[in-house]
Amino acid sequence: MASTISSPSPRWLGQITPWLVPVAILASWQAVAQLGWLSTRILPAPSAVLSAAWTLAASGELLTHLKASFARAAIGFAIGGGIGFFFGLINGGYRLAENLFDTTLQMVRNVPHLALIPLVILWFGIGEEGKLFLVALGVFFPIYLNTFHGIRAVDASLVEMGRSYGLSGWSLFRHVILPGALPGILVGVRYALGFMWLTLIVAETISATSGIGYMAMNAREFLQTDIVVVAILLYAVLGKLADVAARLLERGLLRWNPAYAPA
Amino acid sequence: MGVIDSNEIRALTSAPAPGDARKSGVHIRFDGLSKAYAARQVLNDVNLDIDAGEFVAIVGRSGCGKSTLLRLLAGLEQPGAGGITLNGQALQQTRDELRLMFQDARLLPWRTVVDNVALGLPGSRADVRRAALAALADVGLADRADEWPSRLSGGQRQRVALARALVHRPRLLLLDEPLGALDALTRIEMHQLIERLWLAQGFTALLVTHDVAEAVALADRVLLIEDGSIALDLRVPLARPRERGSAAFAALEDDVLRRVLQHPPLEDQVAAPSAVSFGQWRWAA
Question: For residue A50, is it within any domain?
Fold first, then answer.
C-alpha cells in the first residue's frame, strides 16, 4: 500500500508544488543572464534558448533530428528489450536455462557497455548499426534482470493453486506467471528507458550525421551555446516523456494493484 | 451480512433425503497409505473408506499429518507407499473431480472476482461468466463480481475461493483449514454456507481443521490422526442444522477435545518441510 506520513493537502496545491522550484530556477537564471553577470558563451538566457529552439523548429531541422534520435531509441529498445525479456523468461522459468546462460550474462553485465565504443566503431564503423547495438546493449540488462526476478518472485502458492485448478504450460504462464511478474518487468522497463537515452546521447555525440546529439556537437563547433542547451533540454524532455509513458503503462497494466491505482 | 438465510438452510435440511444429489459424491479409499519426509514418517499405513457424499472432518495436533493426507489426495504430493482410489479409479485419472480450498484464499490479485471464479473453466466466454456469476450468487457475492480481490475482506475472499472450487461441480471438495484465519462470526457464517452448499450439491467433503467445534458442527464423521495413523473414528449422530448450544453437541465436542489432548504435543518434533519447495512450482519445467 502506498501511503505517506503527512495528511492530504488540497488537490490544486499538490499539482502546483512540484513546479515551484523549477520555475524559481528559470527566473533567476534569466535575471542573472539579463544583468550581464553571466556570459552568453557560458550559458545563454532562457529566452535566447527558447528563441533558438523556435528557429530550429520553424526550419524543420529540429523535427528531422528528433525523428532520427527517436527512431534509434525505439529500434534499439525493441531489439535489446526483446532479447532481454526472452532471456529473463527462460532463465526465470527453467533451471537448465539459468544454469546455461545466467553466469555468462552476469559476466557481460560487468562490462560497462559504453566502454565498448572503440570496439563498436571498429566493428560497425560510424553508421547506424553501432548506435543501435549500444542502445540495445544498454537496455538489455535492466529488462533481463527485472524480468528474471519478476518471474522468480511470483507467489509459489498461486502457481500451486493454478496447477490444482488444471492450468499448465501456456495457460499457467498467461494467467498466473506473467501477470505476477509484470510489476517487476515494468520496473525493468523504466530503468531501461533511462539507459536508452543515456546511451543514445553518448553514441550520437561520437559520430553521426543526424540526431539531437549531432545537433549539439555541430553547434559546439560554431560556439552556438544556445543550441547546445536546446539539445540538452530536449534530452531531458524526451527522458521525461519516456518516464510518463512507463507510468501510464504501469497504471494501465497494474490497475489491480492498490499500490499503482490512480489516486 | 444476511448472506445465509437460516430458514433456507432448514428448508434444505428438512427436505426429503438428498439421495439424488448424493450420487454426485465420490467414494474414497486409502489403501495402506504411507508418506515420509526424510527420516520422519508422517503417515503410516492409513487404511480408510469414505462414503460418497459423506462430510468427514480430520482433526489432530499441528504436524500430525492431516494436511499431508489432503495434499496427497489433491495430487500435490506423491505417496511413499500405498495408494488412493476414487470410486475405484486411481487418483491420476480423477483430478478434475476434486477441488481444493487452501488455508488462504489464493485469489489472483490481477483478475476480478468473477474472473477468479472462472479460472480454468472451459467453454465460451459468455457461458463461463454466467457459470461464475451463478457460483458467486451461491456464496452471496454476486454484487462484488467486477471488483478486485484486494477490495474484499478475508471472509469474502474465502467465499470467492469456495465459489471458485464449486463452480467446477467437484465430486470431492477438500478443505485445508480454510477458515483458520477468519474471525469467529465469519466462521460460523462460513460453516452455514458450506453446509448449505454441501447439502445442495451432494459432493464428498473432507475438512482438515484444528478446531474441534468446527469438526463437530459440520462433519458426519470426525477422524483424529496421531503419529501418522487414525486414532479415532467417531460418527456425529446430531441432526442438522446443529445447535451449537445443545448438550449433545457440547458433550461430543468435549469427548473429542479430551481425546486430542491425551496425546503429548508434537512441538519437539521436526516440522514438515514447507509445502512447496522452490523447484516444484516451475511452470513449464
Answer: no
Total count of domains within chain A: 1
Query: What is the distance in angstroms between the Cα of A253 and the nearest Cα belonging to chain B?
Result: 9
Residue A93 sits in a domain of what CATH number?
A: 1.10.3720.10
Q: What is the pLDDT of residues B201-234, one digit of tens each?
A: 999 999 999 889 999 999 999 999 988 888 889 9
What residues of chain B lie within 8 A of the CB of A163, using their CB?
76, 281
Class of domain B54-274 as given by CATH = alpha beta
Tell whether A12 is covered by a domain. no
- Would A95 be classed as within a structural domain? yes
Q: Does the beta-carbon distance from A156 to B74 stay under 8 Å? A: no
Q: Are A256 and B109 a contacting pair at CB < 8 A?
A: yes
Rounded-to-10 torsion of CA B33, B38, B42, B45: 30
Q: Is residue A247 in a domain?
A: yes
The residue range of the domain holding A223 is 56-253
Looking at CA atoms only, how far is residue A152 from chain B in angstroms? Answer: 9
Q: Hey, where are the domains in chain B?
A: 54-274
DSSP A235-246: HHHHHHHHHHHH
What CA–CA distances, in Å, run from A209 to A65, A112, A126, A200, A203?
A: 9, 25, 10, 14, 12
The least confident of B75-79, B132-136, B278-282 is B278-282
In angstroms, rounded to a whole number, what is the distance separating the alpha carbons of residues A241 and B245? 66
Place of cell 467446477: B168
The answer to whether B227 touches B44, Cβ cutoff 8 Å, is yes
Q: Rounded to 5 degrees, what are φ and ψ at A201?
A: -55, -50
Q: How confident is the model at residue B93 (pLDDT cuts 50, 70, 90)?
A: low
Q: Which of A95, A162, A258 sits opposite B285 (nearest CB)?
A: A95
Q: Tell me the per-residue pLDDT of B170-194, one tens digit each, with 9 for 90 and over.
A: 999 999 999 988 888 888 889 999 9
Could you tell me which residues are beta bridge partners of residue B226? Answer: B229
